[in-house]
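SEVERITY: medium
COMPONENT: batch folding queue
REPORTER: lab tech (J.R.)

DESCRIPTION
The queue accepted two submissions in a row. Attaching both inputs and their returned C-alpha cells so the on-call engineer can compare them side by side.

ATTACHMENT 1
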Amino acid sequence: MSLKIIASTCTGCSACEPECPNVAIREKGGIFVIDPKKCTECEGHYDEPQCIAVCPVDGCIVKA
C-alpha cells in the first residue's frame, strides 16, 4: 500500500519530504507528491508514516 498527498490541501510547506526514508516524496508545481512505487508507509523504518506525523494539515496525506 502507499500514501498520496491531496493536492488541493497541500500547502507546499515541505515538512514531509526530508522525513521520507524511501525518498518517495518530491515537489511538483509547488505541491508535493508521493511516488507510489517507492512508498511503503514507512514499514520497516518507523511505527507510523512519518509524512503524516509531520504534516501540519490534517487529512492532507491519505492511503492511496
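ATTACHMENT 2
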Amino acid sequence: MDSEGAQDWLRRYVDAWRTYDPDAIGDLFSDDVAYRYHPGDDPVTGRDAVVASWLGTDSPDGASTRDAPGTYDADYAPVAVDGDTVVATGTSRYRDTPDGPVVRVYDNCFVMRFDGAGRCREFTEYYVERS
C-alpha cells in the first residue's frame, strides 16, 4: 500500500458510507477482515458480517447506527503508510437533516492493514467528539 492507494481507499470508504451500497462496502474489505468500531471491541469478522453491520441488518455491540441519506460527510487522509499498514486521520460531520446545520463533529483515527489486493483486512477506529 502507498499513500495514493490509501487515499483512494479512504475516498471509497466515505462514498460507501454515504450510499450504503453493499457492493461498494464489500469491495473495501478482505474476506477475513477484522473490523473494530472501537479499539476494545471484539471484531466484526468477515466481509459479509461487516456489510451486514454497516447496513444495520446485524448490530454488533458498539456498532454505529445507519445514517439517514445526506446527514453524513467526512474527510480522511493517510498520515503514515508502512508496508501494509496505514494510519489515517480526519473529521466526520453529522447533521440531523440533510439541509440542516452540522450538529456533531468527530475527530477520527483509523489504523488499518491491507492485503495484496488493496482490501482492508484489519480496521480499528479511534474517535472523539468535538465539544
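NOTES FROM REPORTER
The first strand starts at residue 29 and ends at 36.
No errors were logged for either attachment.
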